[in-house]
Amino acid sequence: MNPRLLLVAHGTRAAAGRRVLGRVLLEARKQLAGVDCRLSWVDVQSPGPGRILADGAPTVVVPAFLARGYHVTHDVGQACRDAPGTVVQTPHLGAEPEVVRALMQRLAEAGAVGAFGADAVVLGAAGSKNASSIAETRALAARLSDLMGVPVISGFASAAVPTVAEAVEQFRTEGRRRVAVATHLLAPGFFADRMAAAGGDIVSPPLGAHPEIVDLIVRRYRENSGSLGH
């Protein structure tokens, strides 16, 4: 038997956000024939990861988070530590090459790349009180700046500064004429709505079930499933 895949996401009250995460799981399942693929949530929705893991089945847990914060270290981590069965928690999605490529493509789809694209970009992230999470987002902003050849700074929807709107305004005061917001989120919902209303000229859609994101989740599973046996 192959180990189970448990994808753990934040959770959202937005029906569109729940559908997008369901699509992510569906697309991952297509690449993992013979693997039981499940979805759980750390907030707003149920089931939580602990409920799924309670049956003791060998499981690879992939945190569907773009930055390392409290939900990854505490909520997901504690559920894995408390699980009665054999569990491997993979790294979160982070700033892996797949995430960078997905962000770049979403920006290109929105018209932010090229001769008539943005002359500045705000990387709009959820935000965290965790210093390493903020540092991770800022490092990703620097990477995007190198790739795009325009200034990129981080803005946050919660828990950190500057806000996305403040970051957009900062570029305005510097004379930037076409500011894009790169939505560094997986799914539509409250934070995505906040970024869309932050005053950018261009706002890319959430990463969602982008093939690169699905490939990363599948890679996380495959790189860690061997330690649980087959």
Automatic annotation (TrEMBL):
Keyword Metal-binding: yes
UniProt KW Lyase keyword: yes
Keywords (A to Z) from UniProt: Lyase, Metal-binding
Gene3D superfamilies from the UniProt entry: 3.40.50.1400
Native source organism of the sequence: Dietzia maris
Name of the molecule in the record: CbiX/SirB N-terminal domain-containing protein
